[in-house]
């Protein structure tokens, strides 16, 4: 960080100033002094005037007083001023205790409220962070808390207490009071005492007056998770920094001054402490004003000497780039140039946002070419450096990422880590070469040869070891040679880690040398890549920054006082040709950058001016407050980091400034106003490739080919020389001008000249080289169009343009015009237009490789038939079958296997089914067999499932449905069996099946019939149709192999008892009592129940209806299921369950082949009662 005084404002009548406050939001400055002096000033930067060109932005902009108002109302010395930034109010108090609140109205400040206690002097006032409450403390111990509207909230008298200051906590819940004795007391916002925070003086009995309290409110974030925010400044010069009010381990700072004030900047990253320090001047001691800057952890950053007799206060500007100090009757402004953590490489600015987040520190990679940003979060960033195409971040390691405490991360321009090195050496300073990172702590430095993808491939077996050196050692390079030859790594030298008395304070490097600066002012020079100490140089001050020119012959050094000196490595004594660098000196320098292509050019920043040093002679300064990124081709690129840090999310191209050196500006002026000859003479006196290139371009525009060729030779532009030779063969001046315009990048002008010459072909060729195919198509349509092939090529290129930008609609349109089926397929797929994608199969020829791509795309979205069609057309039947299997289209897979005689599909099907069954996925196996048209296998699995459900006593309706589904699959099997192409009876009779399969087919509907009649009997029973229920129950006796016998005969006994068919009921009870599977107790229950029934009723059927058998004309009971005489079986009606003696009038289902008594029985139902198939006709 660098600080310098930039401006001074004198107060009229030499009134002494006592206090100062800077409104960080609106920029108003309030100063209070003797005899009631109270002024409000506003210093604004003139960045919008006609002379503002963007270079003079920030601190470099001219500033003027836009407000200078004297506020009248105080009679005594004004001692305290404070701002309420939330409500734009100013509060002031004087030695008589008069407090005035001022408000802004129409651009001027007016008195709003006044209060006079008339008892004591106000020693401190503080507004809460939300601006709603103010706390006022008096010297006699009185405390008043009021609201922003002037109402008193509460007051308190602290007995025997002399107060010196007050601060609100950031959340507004606590009040901290400073006492004249050096103690601090903590109260809540209602005035209740809480505690005495720990003091650095403890119980020593020393009386130390507190001169300032400042508690940072955290509104702009924190620089670290545990950084102190509360500063307590004592008159003795000690500053106590606390993390919170309960911090038992505060940071203590010894400033060595008689302190008068302290203040945090707006982000809590710097604490400014002002005071007086006695210095010996001309043999006598004299108090001198100083302002010192510290980090939140108490590290000293910078000290600035301030002129005048006595400094009384200081205040920060809102952006933390300026500090205002009240000294005697003057206001001094000091500019701050912070040491941001940033670097620049490959057109990319890398900078770290100081505010820490929950993810750590955000490092932003801003590509200035396309204005895009990439981010990377690290736990804690120590430093950053760059070289070539890479940068390195030195970070503190995560606690869970190994034993090493620190890490070096090499990244590219898009924040991607290329290589990482973990180490215990704290990398306080880092520098880079093209393949080496050099990191230094206070005692040691390490050379790490990082690996990039490019050099890893080229030098796979030639990597160097990482080497650590102590700053006090004298390496000769011999050890490194031995280690490079020692492939087995048996030769290791111990690392010296002793603390040195002269620590390292800065480093820099080139490909040839490494400079290490030490606090004593000594600079050690090492050669690279073999690290050998070649020289030591002594300077008069501690170096802060160092830089080496492009040929490693000269170094520039900035010390801690901002003084720039030079160090010449090749200066020989007695040589009068070289400039003497030993006496060169520039003051107030805070940044520098050597030219990358000229070892004598150096750009430096002095305050808000940039100087370019040619040798040791400075050119005319340029007003600028940017940080220098690079110096190349006589152009200096700067970045306005101050603006970037304030708004890191708002990266704009105008944050980058490109400044030209004087010779480049003069050359442009000579070429524009004088002529080529004079410019040529000037450039010969000030040679540089950029100037020769500028002259060559100007000569080409004037068609002075001789001068242009000479200039191209001077700047070693081989392509330019070849262009001039080609141009000499062109005899038309207009055509030459068109070629020159195209060569210089003026493509629109070149096209216009070509068209004026009626050379549309050359204009088209130019646009094709540029890749501007939109214009190519326009030019082709302007006259006689090009060939179809040329137009299709142009359309395809435009399609590529849209495809690269993910605009697939636009790409498809032009690919269709260009007849590019291959890319059109990609567009259909990206747009999810799969029907169009499938349609392209018909447009492609057989065996086309594109068919395979289309098939894969269709298969990826589950369009199996279309994918199979594409594979078949391509000729890959195996892949088609595999696709069917993968997408679970087994029927199609089986058909393909049969068509193309592939025998392995059956084995694959069975293996997959066994796999599903072993995993308990029976339903999936059934579905698999169904899709593969293996209906019989699916039916067998369903029969097993139904039997298991029946044993589990599941819902009978569900069991019936399972049996029906299995029977329907058997029917499908019968229909699809091609054997004999005969009748259904062939299959049913088992002529084409194994014995087991034929049984399954023959008994297909028995399970469904059993549960159908069981459900029907229950329904009839509950509906009171006892006769029908009895007949249906009698039918159930045929299904004892499927249904439980006990259930059958219990149902029969119940229904026949209700039907008063006691003979049938008696037979049912006899059957129940003879069952072996039931327990004895149940048998006794059944016997008791039968006894109770048949002691009351005789075992005779009350109804005895008879019907004639159609075969033998014998009269049989209407409940018989078979004729006793001729054994003819009577099928059951699926609607009523009664036996059907005459089938001539019966209705038959076309699916399950079961009967209903008459067609009238099915008139009012929509589906077959048994198989539930829809009845389509009667």
From TrEMBL:
InterPro entries in UniProt: Beta-prop_IFT121_2nd, Beta-prop_IFT121_TULP_N, Ift122/121, TPR-like_helical_dom_sf, TPR_IFT121, TPR_IFT80_172_dom, TPR_WDR35, WD40/YVTN_repeat-like_dom_sf
GO cellular component terms listed in the entry, alphabetical order: axoneme; centrosome; intraciliary transport particle A; non-motile cilium
Organism per entry: Cephus cinctus
Main location: cytoplasm
UniProt-listed SUPFAM superfamilies: TPR-like, WD40 repeat-like
Domain IFT121/TULP4 N-terminal: 1-337
Superkingdom of this protein's organism: Eukaryota
Phylogenetic classification of the source organism: Eukaryota, Metazoa, Ecdysozoa, Arthropoda, Hexapoda
Protein name as it appears in the record: WD repeat-containing protein 35
């Amino acid at each position: 960080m660098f600080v310098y005084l930039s401006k001074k404002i004198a107060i009229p009548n030499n009134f002494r100033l006592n206090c100062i406050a800077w409104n960080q939001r609106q920029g108003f400055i309030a100063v209070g002094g003797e005899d009631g002096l109270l002024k409000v000033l506003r210093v604004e930067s003139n960045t919008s005037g006609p002379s503002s060109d963007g270079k003079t932005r920030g601190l470099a902009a001219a500033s003027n007083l836009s407000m200078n108002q004297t506020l009248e109302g105080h009679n005594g010395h004004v001692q305290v001023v404070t701002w309420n930034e939330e409500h734009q109010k100013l509060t002031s108090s004087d030695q008589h205790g008069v407090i005035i609140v001022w408000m802004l109205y129409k651009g001027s400040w007016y008195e709003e409220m006044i209060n006079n206690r008339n008892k004591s002097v106000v020693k401190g006032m503080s507004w809460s962070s939300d601006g709603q409450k103010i706390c006022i403390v008096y010297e006699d111990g009185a405390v008043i808390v009021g609201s922003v509207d002037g109402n008193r909230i509460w007051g308190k008298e602290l007995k025997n207490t002399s107060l010196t200051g007050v601060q609100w906590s950031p959340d507004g819940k606590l009040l901290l009071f400073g006492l004249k004795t050096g103690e601090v007391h903590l109260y809540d916002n209602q005035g209740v005492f809480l505690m005495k925070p720990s003091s650095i003086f403890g119980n020593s009995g020393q009386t130390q007056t507190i001169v300032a309290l400042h508690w940072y409110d955290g509104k702009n974030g924190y620089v670290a998770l545990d950084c102190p925010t509360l500063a307590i400044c004592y008159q003795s010069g000690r500053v106590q920094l606390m993390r919170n009010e309960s911090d038992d381990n505060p940071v203590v700072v010894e400033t060595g001054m008689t302190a008068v004030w302290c203040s945090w900047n707006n982000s809590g990253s710097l604490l400014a402490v002002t005071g007086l320090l006695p210095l010996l001047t001309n043999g006598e001691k004299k108090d001198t004003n100083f302002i010192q800057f510290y980090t939140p952890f108490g590290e000293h950053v910078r000290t600035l000497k301030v002129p005048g007799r006595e400094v009384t206060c200081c205040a920060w500007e809102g952006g933390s780039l300026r500090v205002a100090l009240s000294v005697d009757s003057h206001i001094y402004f000091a500019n701050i140039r912070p040491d941001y953590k940033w670097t620049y490489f490959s057109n990319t600015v890398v900078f770290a946002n100081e505010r820490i987040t929950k993810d750590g520190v955000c490092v932003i990679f801003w590509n200035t070419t396309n204005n895009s940003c990439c981010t990377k979060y690290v736990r804690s960033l120590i430093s950053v450096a760059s070289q070539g195409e890479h940068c390195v971040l030195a970070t503190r390691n995560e606690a869970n990422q190994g034993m090493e405490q620190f890490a070096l991360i090499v990244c590219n321009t898009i924040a991607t880590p290329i290589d990482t090195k973990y180490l215990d050496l704290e990398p306080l300073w880092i520098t880079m070469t093209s393949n080496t990172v050099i990191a230094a702590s206070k005692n040691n430095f390490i050379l790490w040869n990082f690996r990039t993808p490019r050099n890893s491939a080229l030098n796979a077996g030639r990597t160097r070891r990482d080497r650590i050196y102590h700053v006090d050692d004298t390496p000769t390079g011999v050890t490194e040679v031995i280690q490079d030859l020692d492939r087995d790594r048996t030769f290791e030298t111990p690392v010296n880690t002793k603390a040195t008395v002269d620590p390292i304070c800065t480093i820099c490097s080139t490909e040839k040398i490494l400079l290490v600066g030490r606090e004593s002012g000594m600079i050690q020079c090492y050669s690279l890549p073999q690290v050998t100490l070649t020289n030591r140089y002594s300077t008069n001050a501690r170096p802060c920054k160092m830089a080496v020119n492009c040929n490693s012959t000269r170094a520039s050094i900035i010390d801690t006082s901002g003084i720039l000196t030079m160090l010449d490595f090749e200066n020989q004594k007695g040589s009068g040709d070289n400039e003497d660098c030993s006496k060169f000196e520039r003051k107030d320098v805070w940044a520098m950058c050597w030219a990358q292509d000229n070892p004598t050019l150096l750009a430096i920043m002095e305050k808000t001016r940039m100087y370019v040093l040619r040798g040791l002679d400075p050119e005319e300064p340029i007003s600028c407050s940017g940080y220098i990124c690079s110096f190349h081709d006589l152009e200096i690129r700067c970045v306005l980091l101050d603006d970037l840090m304030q708004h890191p999310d708002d990266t704009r191209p105008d944050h980058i400034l490109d400044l030209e050196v004087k010779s480049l500006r003069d050359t442009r002026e000579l070429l524009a106003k004088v002529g080529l000859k004079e410019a040529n003479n000037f450039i010969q006196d000030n040679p540089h490739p950029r100037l020769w290139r500028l002259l060559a371009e100007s000569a080409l525009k004037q068609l002075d080919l001789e001068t242009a060729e000479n200039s191209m030779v001077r700047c070693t532009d081989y392509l330019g020389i070849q262009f001039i030779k080609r141009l000499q063969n062109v005899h038309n001046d207009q055509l030459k001008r068109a070629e020159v315009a195209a060569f210089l990048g003026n493509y629109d002008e070149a096209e216009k000249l070509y068209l004026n010459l009626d050379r549309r072909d050359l204009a088209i060729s130019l646009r094709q080289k540029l890749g501007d195919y939109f214009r190519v198509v326009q030019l082709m349509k302007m006259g006689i169009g090009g060939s179809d092939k040329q137009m299709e090529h142009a359309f395809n290129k435009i399609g590529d343009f849209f495809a690269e930008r993910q605009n697939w609609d636009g790409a498809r349109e032009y690919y269709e015009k260009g007849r590019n089926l291959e890319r059109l397929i990609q567009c259909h797929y990206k747009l999810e237009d799969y029907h169009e994608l499938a349609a392209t199969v018909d447009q492609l020829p057989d065996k086309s490789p594109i068919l395979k791509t289309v098939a894969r795309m269709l298969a990826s979205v589950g369009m199996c038939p279309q994918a199979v069609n594409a594979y078949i057309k391509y000729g890959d039947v195996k892949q088609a079958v595999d696709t069917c299997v993968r997408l679970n289209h087994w029927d199609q897979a089986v058909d393909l296997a049969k068509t193309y005689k592939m025998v392995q599909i059956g084995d694959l099907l069975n293996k997959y089914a066994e796999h599903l069954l072993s995993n308990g996925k029976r339903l999936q196996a059934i579905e698999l067999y169904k899709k593969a048209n293996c209906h019989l296998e699916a039916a067998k699995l369903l029969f097993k499932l139904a039997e298991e459900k029946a044993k589990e006593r599941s819902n009978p309706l569900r069991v019936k449905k399972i049996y029906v589904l299995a029977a329907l699959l058997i029917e499908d099997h019968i229909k699809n069996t091609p054997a004999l192409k005969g009748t259904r009876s062939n299959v049913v009779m088992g002529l084409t099946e194994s014995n087991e399969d034929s049984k399954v087919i023959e008994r297909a509907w028995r399970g469904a019939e059993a549960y159908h009649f069981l459900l029907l009997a229950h329904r009839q029973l509950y509906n009171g149709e006892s006769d029908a229920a009895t007949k249906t129950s009698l039918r159930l006796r045929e299904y004892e192999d499927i249904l439980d016998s006990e259930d059958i005969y219990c149902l029969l006994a119940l229904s026949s008892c209700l039907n008063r068919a006691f003979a049938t009921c008696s037979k049912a009870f006899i059957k129940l009592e003879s069952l072996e599977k039931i327990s004895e107790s149940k048998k006794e229950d059944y016997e008791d129940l039968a006894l109770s029934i048949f002691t009351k009723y005789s075992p005779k059927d009350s109804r005895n209806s008879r019907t004639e058998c159609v075969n033998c004309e014998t009269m049989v009971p209407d409940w018989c299921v078979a004729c006793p005489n001729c054994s003819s079986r009577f099928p059951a009606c699926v609607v009523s369950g009664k036996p059907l003696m005459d089938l001539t009038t019966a209705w038959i289902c076309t699916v399950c082949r079961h009967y209903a008594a008459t067609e009238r029985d099915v008139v009012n139902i929509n589906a077959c009662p048994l198989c539930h198939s829809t009845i389509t006709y009667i």
